[in-house]
Amino acid sequence: MEDIHVKQKHRYASLVAGLCLAGMSGVATATPIISELFYDAASTDAGFVFVELFGTPGDSLDGLTLEGINGTGGSIYISVGLSGFIPPDGIFVIGDGSGGVTSVPNADFIAGVDFQNGPDSVVLRDGSDILDAVGYGAFGAGDIFAGEGFPAADAPGGSSLARVNPLLDSNDNSVDFSLLEVPTPGVMPAASEVPLPAAAWLFVSGLLPLLIPRRRRR
How far apart are alpha carbons 170 and 193 in whole angstroms? Predict the structure, then answer.
């Protein structure tokens, strides 16, 4: 298994890469957004499912709603009102559970979020406004897709869907999300390699030693 510190280096490097790209292109991502979604555990799902949000530290989540949209018929089968604030690291984890108990590490909020396997969608709302939406799986004729653009892949058991770069949002789930073999709740969202000019890569590599986070308290 790859060392967790190596994984964190890769992910933080990609985050800085996104910052460079966002600065060069003028593209900005409104937050909070869904950065990771884990809905199909290797065994039982209950207590292990989670949704990870990425946002501006200190921003309030009061009044926001997380919804599960059934791909068959489009009904809302989960609706959870959120509360609290985005932590200093920018990552807010909603872990499935009840009575304040969950098996999700680093959970900041516990609620019944046992989302179904695809084809389904998860939507983050602020009243009637949709802040972000992720549809996943193979949608057939007559199915209801409530995500953005085209669906992300249906993650196999034990894997999650992770946003490729939390700072760049193309509004296309098939582009913005990739499969993550080992879910990482509470760790900087996974990111694939982002092509950058040589000068930007030098900037990123120089920051790497400063970007490895301390382990969060559970």
Answer: 16
